[in-house]
Amino acid sequence: MINNLQVTGILIFLFSVFISSCSQILLKMSAKIQYDNKWKEYLNTRVIAAYSIFFISSLVTLYAYRFVPLSMGPVLEASGYIFVTVLGVTFLKEKVGVRKRIGLVIIVTGIMITALFG
């Protein structure tokens, strides 16, 4: 049975995965831009912000593990595929093909099975 502290930990963990997904979108946005030289390609606002968010996400994940069982981490981390897909469609206007939809359904099914019977 999941207690209130675990629910809090799960929400914190999901927040961490979400902000990590946001940073991936920032990196992809930066990759689409042509820069004058290699320095500007790697040292620009989007890239620095994305890696800063990755770092913060790691700290938040470590904190969440105080409340979440270690075995639940990979399951919660899988929600990142969903977040990245939704953010990619929203901000990058990416298309979601049939194979990707099937993959997402499998991921969501796995998360639900683990949550219910884990």
| Number of strand segments | 0
Largest sheet: none
Total domain count:
1
Beta-sheet strand percentage? under 5%
User: Number of helix segments?
Assistant: 6
Instruction: Using the CA coordinates, give the radius of gyration.
Output: 16 Å
Note the run of SSEs as H and E.
HHHHHH
Summarize the amount of helix as a percent range: over 70%
- Average pLDDT figure: 94
Structural class category: mainly alpha
Task: Return residue spans where pLDDT drops below 50 for at least 5 consecutive residues.
Answer: none
Coarse shape: flat
Terminal CA distance reads 10 Å
Molecular structure report:
The protein is mostly helical and about 120 residues long. It has one domain. About 75% of the residues lie in helices and about 0% in strands. The protein is built from 6 helices and no strands. The protein has helices spanning about 5-30, 40, 45-65, 75, 80-90, 100-115. α1 (about 5-30) runs antiparallel to α3 (about 45-65) and α1 crosses α5. The protein is flat and about 55 Å long. The N and C termini lie close together (about 10 Å). About 15% of the residues are buried.
